[in-house]
Amino acid sequence: MGESNYAKVKGIVLELCADRELRGKLIIAGGTVPYLVSGRESGRVHSDIDVVVEQRDMEAVRTYLKSKHLYEKDMDSREFAFNSSRLDYGVNGVIDGVTVNFAPCEEHEGGVSQRNFLTKEHNGFQALVTVGMERVALKEMVDTVLVEGREIRLYRLEVVKIMKEKSKKRKDKEDIAVIEAFGYDGQVYMDLKRRLKTMKFQIKPENRLLRFLFR
């Protein structure tokens, strides 16, 4: 399983959120959130860091990666040959050996759309992904916490719990247990779970044959 790299992951998050050009533009998501909020050590290896960014701020992310010599075209969804529309599905950057995934989101009338991409390395195939969340506003899903004196925007524990309940992976069950032990708002959780129940996923694989499976 490997030695925990959580201290390194937390350090990367703090560094990103403290950057002058990125400050206030990043929303931390996924498996690091329960530990950032609770202050607990995760005790496991985090293969990546999930970051949600409003579409209008994605150029600032690419500028940051380029300024740090972390930008690579083959990790930028806009450069994928099969992304004919050149719509932004995010970009990855490897920071201190950890993949950081920056996924764009946009608010529209009645909901939020979040885009991302799958890689062959982690999923066995490459694909563009759109998640549609209706009847919810981004501000309802986001919270701000202080971590070592720095303000970090992140998905609420209730949102992370809802997302992780869709998985059967051991690490996700462990993350849910941390959320439950720390405590969360049950009323907010039930309200968001009811509204996020209608989430819709659209997956467009690079392989044309696989596209028939995701129609």
Could you characterize the architecture of this molecule?
The protein has helices at residues 6-18, 33-38, 58-67, 120-123, 138-141, 157-164, 170-182, 186-196, 208-211; strands at residues 26-29, 48-54, 91-95, 98-108, 111-118, 127-134, 142-147, 150-155, 200-205. Strand 4 and strand 5 form a beta hairpin. Strands 1, 2, 3, 4, 5, 6 and 9 form a seven-stranded mixed beta sheet that branches. The chain has a two-stranded antiparallel sheet with strand order 7-8. The longest helix is centred in the first third of the chain and has 13 residues, at 6-18. Helix 6 runs antiparallel to helix 7. 34% of the residues lie in helices and 28% in strands. The chain is an alpha+beta fold and 215 residues long.
